[in-house]
């Protein structure tokens, strides 16, 4: 079961459903899927994935990405680390269902998370890490507003080739709220009546 915590036009973000561990196990063991993230070398059993999902669900801000019309799980997104003193966070996203790749679901999920991070959690800087071979992800992050701020050169080796790890970020002032600011403005207008 999923709950519409943050609602977009194509997808919504929901608290994680622990019953989805077998779906995640299938995705993580698909080399085509896992190559785009940090755990391509992991061999994951359903039991191990269930433990990871339980841990993620206890962490404060991890969400399932669910396709809106079909209520179908397509991945997850969340903050892997939050520094509430300095108002920064690192985010991660994972679209495991390949049927939804390249169709704007990842970008919309990121925008929902950014809206939540900047307008509810009062973050100032949200950053992420991506490998240089993951061109579709880099393009998606740039379209949402992330900028490259640094690199760890040749930080990843796959099939005898070396790739950079790219660090990208976006500041609160660079992000234009599409969801939460509109809801707050609407409530303010209603209160003035």
Automatic annotation (TrEMBL):
Keyword Transmembrane listed: no
Organism superkingdom: Bacteria
Uppermost EC category: transferase
Keywords: Acyltransferase, Transferase
Residue ranges constituting the N-acetyltransferase domain according to the UniProt record: 11-173
EC number of the protein: 2.3.1.57
Coiled coil is among the record's keywords: no
Pfam family name, one: Acetyltransf_3
Gene3D superfamilies for this protein: 3.40.630.30
GO molecular function: diamine N-acetyltransferase activity
CDD domains assigned to the protein according to its UniProt record, in alphabetical order: NAT_SF (cd04301)
PANTHER family: GNAT-FAMILY ACETYLTRANSFERASE, SPERMIDINE N(1)-ACETYLTRANSFERASE
Name assigned to this protein: Spermidine N(1)-acetyltransferase
Name of the encoding gene: speG
